[in-house]
Write a structure and sequence with these properties.
Low-confidence stretches: none
CATH superfamily of the largest domain: NAD(P)-binding Rossmann-like Domain
Number of domains: 2
Number of strands: 11
Structural class: alpha/beta
Oligomer: single chain
Distance between the termini: 23 Å
Shape: elongated
């Protein structure tokens, strides 16, 4: 697998913004979209005109050797299908997907996405992050693209010490150095949970950290990795 190689599926506003940031890191980038851009393409970016949901098209972008895939078409249904297709062809690829409707975030996680954002929330949140904590926001952008950190899902089993405690009380970050970026609960997703969010039995915790930190987190709280 080529370190850092990235594919973007969908070249709308979200895809274009992602492309600009990725190109700044110097990694290899290929974009797939049904419509060829009217204006010239940025230097260093390959473009394939076609349907990313077509297996032949997405394979032609070098999916088998790709480290990360950004799935950002305007259709949640298509994004779910592309995510499933990517994970079938390259299970090791990290998938960052966009949901136009927040209710579809959990569906994308179930399809295999490592990180899902709601299109209705991403603009304001990312602007706020870059305005308030630009160094951290830039660091996270680089890490999602080039590796460094991973996102895993853990199920909270009965008897787990986290049950009934808030994220602040659990001191998850202090224990393992990881961050909780979302919580799956009864078919819904709590995105960017606050420190006062409580943990319940059966919750799926979406955790970001290095592979060592994730392992330490799993062992410290005796959690189950979501298959």
């Amino acid at each position: 697998m080529e370190c850092g190689k990235t594919i973007i599926c969908g070249y709308g506003l979200v895809g274009q913004n992602a492309a600009r940031r990725i190109l700044k890191t110097g990694v290899s980038l290929t974009v797939i979209d049904l419509v060829s851009p009217i204006v010239g393409l940025p230097s260093g970016m390959d473009f394939i005109q076609g349907d990313a949901a077509d297996e032949e098209v997405i394979r032609s972008a070098g999916l088998e050797e790709t480290a990360s895939v950004v799935v950002a078409t305007n259709s949640d249904v298509k994004n779910v299908f592309i995510t499933l297709l990517v994970k079938e062809i390259n299970p090791l690829a990290r998938v960052m997907a966009v949901a136009s409707d927040p209710v579809n975030q959990e569906k994308l996680y179930r399809a295999g996405a490592n990180y899902v954002v709601s299109k209705s929330l991403i603009g304001g949140r990312m602007l706020a992050k870059h305005a308030i904590r630009p160094q951290i926001a830039d660091f996270m952008d680089r890490m999602y693209i080039t590796g460094g950190v991973e996102i895993s899902q853990f199920v909270v089993p009965a008897g787990c010490s986290l049950i009934g405690r808030t994220l602040a009380d659990s001191k998850i970050r202090d224990v393992a150095g990881v961050n909780v970026i979302a919580i799956g609960r009864r078919g819904a997703t709590i995105s960017s949970p606050s420190a006062n969010t409580g943990v319940l039995e059966g919750d799926t915790l979406h955790i970001i950290g290095t592979s060592e930190q994730l392992k330490e987190f799993k062992n410290a709280f005796e959690l189950m990795v979501k298959s």
